[in-house]
DNA sequence: CGCCTTTGACCGGCGC
DNA sequence: GCGCCGGTCAAAGGCG
């Protein structure tokens, strides 16, 4: 996988950042290209792991669950969420890690284009420490 | 009532 | 082409 950092945040939870920058695909002038050759635009994506008893940590945004699937080689399902803010297409996935049921992997995809509804100090702190600045 | 989960169907990419 | 796999849709039902 990619490089990871271990760190702590309040509530005695450990956090591991997973840098997915290698997967980023910044498209410039994609509109000029022929439709037939148009490649799917990749949203910025990052994930991190928390040692938490609850699957859904409160990041201050409102999410609507739109799916849940079983993934291979993992007894735990993966859940899919969308940000419910109008026009905001941010998504996130949540799944537990096999072999360590205490670890939750959260993956964010996209950038919020609006302020957070209910700021969460814990969460903001995490992202800041991980050098992530998703327009909070 | 409005917003939320749940859940099976559906779909597209990829490997064989 | 076919089937697996991961991601999404949408109908139906739950709950405050």
From TrEMBL:
Primary site of residence: nucleus
Biased composition (Basic and acidic residues): 27-45
Location of this chain's protein in the cell: Nucleus
InterPro entries linked: WRKY_dom, WRKY_dom_sf, WRKY_plant
SUPFAM superfamilies in UniProt: WRKY DNA-binding domain (SSF118290)
One Pfam entry name: WRKY
Ranges annotated as spanning the membrane: none
Keywords: DNA-binding, Nucleus, Transcription, Transcription regulation
Domain of life according to the entry: Eukaryota
Segments for region (Disordered): 19-45
Domain WRKY residue range list: 52-117
PANTHER family in the cross-refs: WRKY TRANSCRIPTION FACTOR 45-RELATED, WRKY TRANSCRIPTION FACTOR PROTEIN 1-RELATED
Name this protein carries in UniProt: Probable WRKY transcription factor 45
The encoding gene: LOC104725382
């Amino acid at each position: 996988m990619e490089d990871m950092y271990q760190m702590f945040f309040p509530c005695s939870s450990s956090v591991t950042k997973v840098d997915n920058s290698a997967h980023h695909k910044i498209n410039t002038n994609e509109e000029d290209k022929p439709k037939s050759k148009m490649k799917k635009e990749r949203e910025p994506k990052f994930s991190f792991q928390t040692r938490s008893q609850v699957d859904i940590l409160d990041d201050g945004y409102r999410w609507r669950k739109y799916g849940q699937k079983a993934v291979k080689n993992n007894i735990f399902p993966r859940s899919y969420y969308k940000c419910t803010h109008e026009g905001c297409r941010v998504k996130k996935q949540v799944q537990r890690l096999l072999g360590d049921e205490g670890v939750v992997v959260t993956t964010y995809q996209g950038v919020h284009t609006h302020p957070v509804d209910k700021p969460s100090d814990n969460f903001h702190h995490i992202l800041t420490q991980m050098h992530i600045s998703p327009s909070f």
